[in-house]
Design a protein that fits this description.
about 30% helix; 4-stranded mixed sheet; alpha+beta; two-stranded antiparallel sheet
């Protein structure tokens, strides 16, 4: 299977084929509205504004699996993002990214790029925090927290995975290279 073989649901529950994004550079992110990393919406919007006309799509998948930090319904999440962060990119339907109810797209993404470690200013904190609940976390491809980002090139190849500790602006050069 390739990334374009999957379908996802928009926030209203309509099927969207990933094939609709052929030829685009994708940044696929699991998000939450009440997380310490939620301010990354600002950086995601800045990337969107700078690169959307050149072919970048940001696919925002709200997820409530980490600390119950996305409790709103799909419309509530959309309204929050527009009101607080003035996002122009759309939110998809709330999903699960790990476990028996994870959507197949995330099963695929994790199979292509596993966990490679936390980096950045909050990396050590996240390693300790996640390690307390999952001592084996370094050895599994599971999504560890909100705002894990997957970068996909125009041919549908998953190029890199960025953990929640990587700010969106740190990905700009990699996006530019793919555009």
């Amino acid at each position: 299977m390739a990334i374009y073989d999957y379908t996802v649901l928009d926030r209203k529950g309509n099927e969207v084929s990933m094939a609709d994004f052929k030829g685009k550079v994708l940044l696929i992110v699991n998000t939450a509205t009440g997380c310490g990393f939620t301010p990354q919406y600002k950086g995601l919007e800045e990337l969107w504004q700078k690169y959307h006309e050149k072919g970048l799509e940001i696919l925002d998948f709200p997820c409530d699996q980490f600390g119950h930090q996305a409790p709103e319904d799909d419309e509530g999440i959309h309204e929050f993002c527009q009101m607080k962060y003035h996002t122009s990119f759309d939110n998809f339907k709330k999903i699960e990214v790990n476990g028996e109810n994870e959507i197949p797209l995330y099963t695929y993404l994790k199979s292509q790029k596993g966990f490679a470690g936390f980096t950045g200013a909050k990396g050590a904190f996240m390693s300790l925090f996640i390690g307390k609940s999952d001592p084996d976390y370094k050895n599994t491809p599971s999504i560890k927290w909100n705002f894990t980002k997957f970068l996909v090139d125009r041919e549908g190849n998953v190029i890199e995975r960025f953990e929640s500790t990587v700010e969106p602006n740190k990905i700009a050069e990699k996006i530019e290279a793919l555009l």
